[in-house]
Amino acid sequence: MKKRTIEIMDTTLRDGEQTSGVSFSASEKLTLAKLLLDELKVDRIEVASARVSEGELDAVKQITSWAKEQKYLDRVEVLTFVDGGLSLDWMKKAGAKVQNLLTKGSLNHLTHQLKKTPSQHFNGIKKVVDQAKKQRIATNVYLEDWSNGMRNSKEYVFEFLDFLSTQPIKRVLLPDTLGVITYKETYDFISEIVERYPKIHFDFHGHNDYDLGVANVMEAIKAGCHGLHLTVNGMGERAGNAPMASAIAVINDFLPEIKINVNEKALFKVSKLVSAFTGVGIPSNKPIVGDSVFTQTAGIHADGDNKNNLYFSDLMPERFGRKRKYALGKMSGKANIQKNLQELGLTLNEEELKKVTARIIELGDKKERVTKEDLPYIISDVLHSDYQQKVFVKSYVLTHAKGLQPSTTLSLEINGKIYEENASGDGQYDAFINALHKIYSSRKVELPNLVDYAVRIPPGSNSDALCETIITWDLNGKEFSSRGLDSDQTVSAIKATEKMLNII
Questions:
Q1: pTM, full prediction
Q2: Is 247 exposed, middle or buried (CB count within 10 Å of its CB: 0-12, 13-18, 19+)?
Q3: Domains in the chain: how many in total?
Q4: Is the same domain home to 345 and 454?
Q5: Domain that residue 304 falls in
Q6: Cα–Cα distance, 194 to 147 (Å, whole number)
Q7: Is the pLDDT of residue 463 over 80?
Q8: Which positions ≥6 away from 467 have C-beta within 8 Å?
Q9: Model confidence over 42-55: pLDDT tens digits?
Q10: Same domain, yes or no, for 173 and 264?
Q11: What does the alpha-carbon distance between residue 69 and residue 34 come to, in Å, rounded to a whole number?
Q12: Is the domain of 161 the same as that of 83?
């Protein structure tokens, strides 16, 4: 079967920059332009709106200079306006050779915003197109609010397209400017247009206000459109544009008759870079590029992956330069933990695995995140707790107020009997130790001396769950250590101390 090629135009640097609070610097735009064309391999990029600012002009100059060297200049596009040639003058300064001319695709916009008749509008467009041709600038035409135009003023849209069919333009761009049409309307409208104008190249430009961006992309392709406009991470005004990563995955997996040039493996890299440049975070559950979308959480899913990959789909993370992960938390089963242990090169017997699983579930119940990097610490904590517990830290209150010495009120259970004391100290943990000494002094029991106090955070861990406190003690010339594990450093030290009390 011969495949039909669809052009992919990325408009992150233009329409994506209309995301609230987002502005790319010139160097950022150049970096992304190179990445989009060289690595992601989109067919075209829309990089700016004409006449916005001097900074924008400088950015486009840098992009066009690089693009000219790489012979990409005809793939770099700029949004322009019907303004008597002012946008074209700006493009000439910027070195750009393709304009995307913004026009009115609905009678409502034409009548109430421009306050012009169709013939007046068309005459203005013709002058700009003719001027562009003389300057050897190629023209694509945006029909702004086209989707509402098809709904409410179809005769005007067809009158407009009749006119454009006589003009020396390269493409007609059909934007769902407000993201309001359904996938059925997308299919019906574009089918009708493509059938009526078989010689015109049509791009579909979808927005995501009803979260229908990707569905509309699918239907636009089925209806016969020739190109798509997408943005990285779905950046764009209001709810954003149709997202690049999801659309590419959908095309590759569900539209086998379609060929695109986009390199899937670069999607995640580009996504992360755009997020870093803009400061707009990627939701962890965002398809393809979110941090959690290739993470199995439930233990039954990890177990199924061990048994003929029962929970795999065509969305394999390796396609996008990523890896499958197995979450550690209260939903974890032994299979999740085993998967993580395998990656670390660790093995546990069945009994040890049960203990570690129970500890991870306990942490999950406290809403603390656990990562693979935390596992060695959890294992150490759990497997070095093999003693009969007779001493329990039942409760404590730690206070630290400005101008006052830190203090602790402590409740301790020893062999079933409750002891309470309070004390102050140089810090919260020191106050805790002083209260502890009071209790043991009343029992005429000597406590070991604290020799060393070390705090470790798992290297590479991005969790907020754990830090490990290792305390070395000296009792009558014999040294030993105890460990505590918690998200709070002081609490982990208290846990290490509780273990010491059960060892002596």
A1: 0.71
A2: buried
A3: 3
A4: no
A5: 295-383
A6: 15
A7: no
A8: 455, 456, 457, 485, 486, 487, 488, 489, 492
A9: 999 999 999 989 99
A10: yes
A11: 12
A12: yes
